[in-house]
Amino acid sequence: MDQPVHVLTYDVGTTGCKTCIYRIDKTLTKVGSDIAEYPLHITDDGGAEQRVEDWWDGLGRSSRNVLARTGLDPSQIRGVSFCCQMQGSILVDKKGTALRNPMIYLDGRAVQQIEKGLHRGLLRINNMNAFTLLNTLRITGGIAASPKDPLWKYHWVKDNEPEIFSRTHKWLDVKDYLILRSTGEIAMTRDSAHITFIYDTRKGREGWHPGLCRKFGVNMDHLPRVVDATHVVGGLTGQAARDLGLSPGTPVFAGGGDVTLTTIGSGCLNPNDTHIYVGTSGWVVSNVDKRYVDITNYMAAILGAIPGRYNFVAEQETSGACLQWVRDHLAMDAIGVYMDGSTHDTPTEALGALYSLLNQAVEETPPGAGDLLFTPWLHGNRAPREDAHARGMFFNIGMNTGKRRMIRAVLEGVAFHKRWMLEAMEKRIPRQRTLRFVGGGAKSPVWCQIMADVTGRCIETIENPQDAGAAGAAVVCAVGLGHMPSFESAKPLIKVENTYGPRSEFKPMYDRNFKTFKTLYANNKKLFRQLNQQAMVKN
To answer: How far is the C-alpha of 312 from the C-alpha of 514, rounded, in Å?
Structure first.
């Protein structure tokens, strides 16, 4: 390996941008990081949007801060890569200007569009047109089965904002827009292309599929070129370099989505290695070597950042967001008092201390939370039951139920849902006795133990689990720069820090409560729809 180099990675999520600098030599070492938060805009009709200027401002603030903290000169940064939230929809004009606020992965407004494009026909499977379903599965290995998928967001704008749609030059995901903003060049990585489900993933036939584009009414002129994660899309433009505090011409690698790069950064680099992620959203992902699809449980394998590999994905809309909900609502009064009298230097430090207090409260509450159950579907659900109408609830509240039990029930509810997705996934892949747990949720030892107890698996965490996506982006840079021979060579550099084993004494209780948890969805599906469908079809 050559002399050590430094790379800068952006992990652009739902609530903020995390910017990290890594040193690449015989180890992969994070030398500094910074977080810039930005708002999420939820609309009454099921929409979820963000502003591109909020993203861009966050990138600039955080990159300048991390450079200042590390004392590195911008010229020492040898490469830049992005790890971003996926399934967004950004329409840009010929100048590269975003024509409207991005509709992010949480946006579920396109109910009428999916109904028209997929749910009609005499012969249907899982309420999907059978011919369309089978043909799309054959070509892509999956299908846009949710109104939150990018394909239907594209059509929502076409149907509801025709003047904006008429000026569309290209249709991009979040990462691809930010790369365009950085380099002036338009490209999309294979993972983002795949989740449009108009991209042919069959070996030797990879590319946008004209027949599917005609079938789903997509203008092929709107589709960007597709590149590998390690491809250098371009160098930072002068304007972008000034905005970000970096050097003009710094290579910008294509990078990848959060799912695919977190797979790498978690160290799940061998076939069937599986990780659980708890950030704002959540998922279970297995690194596999062929296409898998499970239409019953709304799971599919998408092209990964590693050539020849797929990521078999089960998604959860709100995961760590449930703990944020606890922070902002269940504990609001206590937190307000705490924040007013806080002696911490920064809001970030104060919030970190608050989360420590919440985790301490959970640790002091007996497992099972007094048989109180929580369903973590605060903004609908994806897998294993696609339902934009589903919502969260506490079940089995009694006279002795207090906030501590409710907080613990929230963490257990997220773990129950991860078990539900995991068991569905393992109908296709071998059962994994050991799982990696990454994301901000993995910083909590009590949540790690809950995850082990509820799933019945050995849970491993890594150093800085909240930075797994950014670490994956750093590996992309390392491979792209030739400082690592392959993605697999990074596995020894991503070491296990802590291990949590399941405690057998709690297994009967958690098995019983898990069975009830799954029944809660089946018993309330119609009621969720009755309460929530009207708001989602207003437009």
So the answer is: 23
